[in-house]
Each structure stands twice: as C-alpha cells, then as structure tokens.
Amino acid sequence: METRRATAAEFVNFNLSAAALAEEPRHLQLARNFLGTKETSGKRDNPVIMQFYADVGHDYVEHDEVAWCAAFLGAMFERCGVRSTRALNARSYLKWGEAVDPEFGRPGDVAIFTRGKNTWQGHVAFVLRVADKFVEVLGGNQNNSVSIARYPRERLLGIRRVGKYSVKASGLKFGDRGRRVEALQQQLTDLGYAVGHVDGTFGSRTREAQLAFEADNDLQTDGIASEADMGVMEKAKKREISEARKNATLTSLAGRSTIANAAVHNISAGSILSGAGVVGILGEFSGTLGVVGDALQIVKGFVADNGFLIGAAVIGVGAWIAWQAWKSGDARVQGERAGRIM
C-alpha cells in the first residue's frame, strides 16, 4: 500500500465537525495551521521550515532539504509548552511519552514508521486515525510538505502519547521579550552558555542555552526559565565543557548525530563525484585510464561522449555537494564544542 495524501472529501469524513476539531489536542490544532507548507525549490530555503529546526535546538541546519518530519512535530510540541525529544531522528520518539496500543490510537498521538532499509531511518507524524490497514497522519516532510497522508499498518513501529512531559506553570519562554529576558541572557552568558546576542529576545539560541543549563543542573529540561531555575543560577558555578566536547570532530559525532552522519556521507559522495570528473577528463585527453572502478569508467565514457565542459560540470557539482555538507557538518561540530547542543 503506497503512502499518499488524503483527498479533501476524505479529510472531511475523518474529521466530522468543527466541534470535533476543537476537541483535538492543542499541538494538533496548531499543526493544522501549517498544512501546505512546502520546501522552497532552488537555493532558497523556506524560513518557516528553518524555524522548525531552530525550535527544537538545531538552528545550525542550513537547508530545508535536511529531513524535517521530527523537527516539525517537535516544534509543534515546543510551541505548546510540551517537551519534545528535540532530536531530528524520527525514531527518537519510540522512547518518548507513553506507549499506546495502536488499536487505541487517537488524534494527536505520535506515530513512528519505518523508512528505507536502514534501521535508523524513520518517519514520525501526528495520528489522525488508525484503520485496519493504514494509519492516517498529519506530518511534515511528507512529499516535501506538511500534509495529510496514509501509511500502511505494517510500517508502523509504535504509537506514543504525551505523558509526563509537562511544562512548568510559569517562567520566561521562547518568544518572550524584555528586560527580564535580557537579564536571563546575561546570567547564562556569564555561566558559559552561549545565547548569541544579549538583546532581550528569547529566541532559539537562548532556549538552547536554557536547555543546556537545565540538563547540566538536573532540572526539568523544557527550555522555560522558571523562578526555581533562576534561583539555581544565582548559586551556579561557571560551566566547564568536557574535553570530549571541546575536541569533537565530524567523524566522532557521526555515530550519534543525524546531521554529522549525513555530512560525512555527502562529503564523501561529493568528493568521489569530483574525483570521477577529474579522472574522466584526464582519460579523455590521455586516451588511457588504467584500472579503475566501474563508476569511474562510466564517468570517463560519459565525458568522452560529451566533452570537456561536461567533465568540468561534474567536478563542480561534486565540489558543491561536498562544500555544502562540510558547512552543515562544521556548524554541528561548533555547536557541540560550544556546548550549545545537548
């Protein structure tokens, strides 16, 4: 059974009335507001999607083509004051909240599915309904957009529900502005937590710093600076970043970071592509290539048939892929070394 979007008629049938919609969890109501949000074609990126990454603590992501289903879901939770996993790995939600029997899944629950052949890959979205043969969900990065789609039941890994992941009753939070936020930013900065600019705006960098402070001090990690948190700050000592963080590299992070892992693979792919272009051009001019891999032989033949400019284009595309991957990976490494990422 193929994944597909639901039609408008099906959408009405699955959501019977305005009253039923009003009874949906707040995070699902908020998610509906983003239906139709799409990746931007070309070099430009959709700022709405880029904010999803930032909302879950990954503002170093540079392009909206990085898998964002978990970023979208997490952003909806965070904006409603519910702690998400703050990870970009869809399967991170398999240990989040409380497990729910699929037969009792309800709108707003979290559905996690398989994706591809690798065991670490997955897809995550909000449940709309669970049928005998499929699960209908509202999610991000479904055909590169926020949409409603059906996934076969055999791909379902699990359903989770908001449990003990509640928020503090009050405190400074994402989106707040003013002198109190500025004072918080200065305190975090003095303690060694990078907030970017001390400007009185509680943005994604300030929330990252707040989350890191909470994790370091065994506080509830929800990114909200409560009065209790501020009391702990008054007595806290300046943060010391571990040697492992200070010396982090792209390869050392690849095993536990989706961004770093993708960067390593894309740098390798881009480098190989550029190398193949070089070998192809050399082969065209020399007439001999020696013993090379099948992929290089294919590129050599392609360059021989289409000329030097095609070979140069292959080199350029490969170099661009490697460069973009390096920039994304380096941003992840710098965030790790600065202690901005938990």
What is this structure, in a nutshell?
With 342 residues, the protein is of the alpha+beta class. The chain has 13 helices and 7 strands. The chain is globular and about 70 Å long.
- The low-confidence parts are 1-16, 165-169, 287-293
Mean pLDDT: 80
User: How would a textbook summarize the main sheet?
Assistant: 7 strands, antiparallel
Number of domains: 3
Q: Give the fraction of residues assigned to helices.
A: 40-55%
Shape: globular
Q: What is the N-to-C order of secondary-structure elements (H for helix, E for strand)?
A: EHHHHHEEEEEEHHHHHHHH
Strand content: 5-15%
Instruction: Return the structural class.
Output: alpha+beta
Number of strands: 7
At CATH level 3, the topology of the largest domain is endopeptidase fold (from Nostoc punctiforme)
What spatial order of strands do you see in the largest sheet? 1-6-5-4-3-7-2
Radius of gyration: 23 Å
The CATH homologous superfamily of the largest domain is called: endopeptidase domain like (from Nostoc punctiforme)
Span from first to last CA? 38 Å
At CATH level 2, the architecture of the largest domain is Alpha-Beta Complex
Protein name: TIGR02594 family protein
Organism: Taklimakanibacter albus
